[in-house]
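Issue 218. Parser rejects a valid record. Input:
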Amino acid sequence: MKQPVFTGVCTALVTPFLNGKINYPLMEQLLRRQIDAGIGAVVLSGTTGEAPTLSDEEKITMFYKAKEYAGDSLTIIAGTGTNSTSHAVELSKQAQQVGADALLVVTPYYNKGNPDGLYRHYAAVANAVSIPIIVYNVPSRTGVDMPPALYAKISKLPNIAGVKEASNDVNKITKIRCMCPKDFYIWTGNDDLIVPVMSMGGVGVISVLSNIFPEETAAMADAALDGDFDTAAHLQCQLSPFITQLFAEVNPIPVKYAMKYAGFDCGDCRLPLGQISPEIMQKIDRLFK
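Output the parser choked on:
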């Protein structure tokens, strides 16, 4: 039986920039903060990490430096998905070579593979590496929504660990749970759905919120894992106003602004993501004050 890559919280880490380049000393500080907060895993070069704007060299260097720094203290999950199967395969192989513990592979976007193409895409990546792979389904960004029946087929590949489901269809979680084996694990990609998804068998979250509130997000997920849904629901409600503002504009624009309140100036987002709007900035300011 396959084991989950992680349970509880995995932080989709922001990529800190300074003068247009990755700020590796600050990245190490961010990793240390996650470790100290009891977070067990991070995703690098995901949506929150501005993966589309990172070069392959930057990604591989970041994976290497993160694993070198964190060692066994964090599970390093490398975002290696692209909309070219050969490119995703090559990135995934390189990520494994530099020490990544697992991969996050988004559904191919823009050219939007059909079910046959999507299956063969994931099979190609899975056959090229030996580390676990988390499928990443985020239809609002990719234009592709993988059906549960396709998950059931993909789950038979030996190193497919499960899915980061970032759709807003809570009913889909039930369908995945019913159609897929128990060792096809479900992680939500939506901070506003942590408790609902975990109440239906999800084992955790790949979170934006935990960049700012790692301890509180971990407490919420841990309570849900323990079956204490009263505590988990209370924390979900308590953190809801922050979650709303973190997604009031395109992620990661708001979270990078909010990181300054946590004491980390991670720089601006790379274009084409622009500056945060004054309205959202003021709302975040009011929440923290």
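Fixed in the parser; the record now loads. The chain has twelve helices and ten strands.
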